[in-house]
Amino acid sequence: MRTLIMSCNTGAGHNSCAKAIQEVYQERGELCDIVDALQFISPHASRFISNWHTRIYRYAPKLFKAGYADVEQHESIFREGTTVYKYLTSGVDRMREYLESGSYDNIICTHVFPALAVTELLRRYPLRLQTSFVSTDYTCSPCAADSNLDFYFIPSPLLTEEFAGCGVAREKLVPSGLPAAQAFYHPMVKAEAKRALGIAPEKQHLLMMCGSMGCGPICELAELLEPMLREDQLLSIVCGTNSDLFEKLEKRFAGQENVRVLGLVTNMPVMMQGSDLLLTKPGGLSTTEAAASGLPMVLIDAVAGCEEHNLDFFLGLGAAETADTPEALAATALTLLERPERLAAMSAAERTDETRTPAEIIYETLFPGAGFATRDRAEAADTERYTRVR
């Protein structure tokens, strides 16, 4: 079986999820590629959508939130026959050529846009494909139920009823968890991780980040936190790809021994495993990575609908806290660092009895011969699919 993962360059989460799945496939010797599905519409469309998504998300979060809320209230704009649907599925002929040239027969979508396009592809052409969607947020994304794929991998069994209520067939739902890189699920001892980061094990390490795009009230929070840090506490600030933010903070905290300013980091598993508390926006992947690392969270500045749902999920789980203002967020973080029993309870709330990682569950579901007990479901999906396309 040759696998193609279709992602979208609309934030790093979808691509990080795709890479996490690819990692497991490649570990098992399977051919697995990743493609930006927007390129099938056109290279210009991919650049345009990606650039404007980033700009609106970073500089106009209220507009982003309003747009998302409107989509949630009017999901019909994505349905077959609408202008939006026709645009998102306008590249299915190029998609077909790409799939056939690579002899792909297992398609995994980490964004709803390619899920809709693949649905349209199978309406038009009798292709023998196994298809699936992987949710990258702790909610049923708008229009996910308008797609018609074989499997829907969701972040938690607690979300089964929500996805079924949105219209996704219950028998297609697989509560796999949200895939993150394998290293997050094999944590280092905290003291060893701190040493790897050049931090004394006895120091409390407060990690602050706001997604790959470096959004949120980082500057204000850093200004509030820095004068209140003790000598045995260290604040690390990850700015992601936001170079302006990095330069501003690096200049502001130059020479400060208890504040580190970082750009886009490549050792995030070690960063999280060597931290005592995380301040972060409630992105689907960042919260998942923290949970896999057993890292308690203070969630800040939720922007769009998905982030608000992620926030609610982890608050309900007992793995996170939040507050309404930067002042209150800073106070919450510092108070938690003084309450080791509360931090331990938040970390425990993130644990699961599942011994396999989400990406491993996805692999074993789609490759039933690998030993996972979903052979009957996979075979039933094959029967339904091939009946449909004949």
Counting helices, strands and paired strands, the structural category is alpha/beta
N-to-C order of helices and strands: EHEHHHHEHEEHEHEHEHEHEHEHEHHHH
Q: What is the overall pLDDT average?
A: 87
User: Number of DSSP helices?
Assistant: 17
Assign the CATH architecture of the largest domain.
Answer: 3-Layer(aba) Sandwich
Largest sheet: 6 strands, parallel
Stretches where pLDDT is under 50 for at least 5 consecutive residues are: 371-390
What percentage of amino acids are in beta strands? Answer: 5-15%
| CATH class group of the largest domain | Alpha Beta
Shape: globular
Q: Care to count the β-strands? A: 12
Counted up, domains total 2
Strand order in the largest sheet: 2-1-3-4-5-6
* Rg value: 21 Å
Distance N to C terminus: 21 Å
CATH topology (level 3) name of the largest domain: Rossmann fold
What percent of residues adopt helix (DSSP H or I)? 40-55%
Structural commentary:
With 390 residues, the chain is α/β, with parallel strands linked by helices. The protein folds into two domains: 210 residues, Rossmann fold (3-Layer(aba) Sandwich); 162 residues, Rossmann fold, CATH 3.40.50.2000. Helices cover 47% and strands 13% of the residues. The chain has a six-stranded parallel β-sheet with strand order 2-1-3-4-5-6, sandwiched between helices. It has a six-stranded parallel β-sheet with strand order 9-8-7-10-11-12, with helices on both faces. Helix 12 links the parallel strand 10 and strand 11. The longest helix is centred in the N-terminal third of the chain and has 17 residues. It is globular. The protein starts with a strand and ends with a helix. The C terminus is likely disordered.
